[in-house]
Amino acid sequence: MRGGWLLRAVMMGAAAMLLLGGLLTAVAHHRSASGQGGAPCAPLAGWQAVTVTARSAWGGARTGTGYRTDGGGVVVPLGELAEPLLSGRGLYWDGERRTVSLLGPDDVLSVHFPPGRESVERAVLNGAVIPLRAVLCGEQVYLPVEHLAAVLDLEVVWTGSDSLRLAPAEPRSR
After folding, report:
1. Is 21 helix (H, G, I), strand (E, B) or coil?
2. How far apart (Å, rounded) are the C-alpha atoms in residues 151 and 124?
3. DSSP E strands: which ranges in the chain?
4. Both ends of the chain: CA-CA distance in Å?
5. Which superkingdom does the taxonomy of this entry point to (predicted)?
6. Which CATH superfamily is domain 4-168 in?
7. How far out from the chain centre does Cα 23 lie?
8. What pLDDT, in 10s, does the model give residues 112-169?
9. Residue 90: is it exposed, middle or buried by C-beta count within 10 angstroms (0-12/13-18/19+)?
10. Model pLDDT for residues 58-85, shown as the tens digit of each residue
């Protein structure tokens, strides 16, 4: 059948888009970081809330709540804010293994949460184990803003003492 390859290619592309859309929806499904009575889940308790706005290259934006950690860093909700920043990259959640993987233009970052653990102190970046504090709160993964920015090639701009903006970095001249 002539032209059959085109139909197969279109159907495979559509199936891939549906699969990717399902994976993004699964990761982006946001349960509030609040536990009983509006208190944050245990690993986030006591940390200062930070407003995070993610802006895409084409103008879309989402706003979510990140947290300033006790060490002074900031963790941001990956699924809640990632979609406008991905622009063709990947975000995958393996619920069975409790592992999230983020694919940037040059880097791959994976974080695994062992059963019963809501926070971890290590991740794998391009095959190497690195120190990284990540939190799993309900179905939402919080990653340090500096790692998210490095993997997705983002610029982090503080817009106030308790608010920041993530946006695609300007292309570097070579």
Report:
1. helix
2. 12
3. 48-55, 61-68, 74-77, 90-94, 99-103, 108-112, 119-125, 128-137, 140-144, 154-160, 163-168
4. 48
5. Bacteria
6. Copper amine oxidase-like, N-terminal domain (3.30.457.10)
7. 12
8. 999 999 999 999 999 999 999 999 998 899 999 999 999 988 899 999 999 999 988 8
9. middle
10. 778 889 999 999 888 999 998 878 766 7
Token output for 62 = 């989402």
Residue listed under structure tokens 């860093």: 73
Q: 3-state DSSP call for residue 114?
A: coil
CA distances from 128 to 35, 86, 118, 124 (A): 34, 23, 22, 5
CA distance 28 to 20: 12
Residue count of the chain? 174
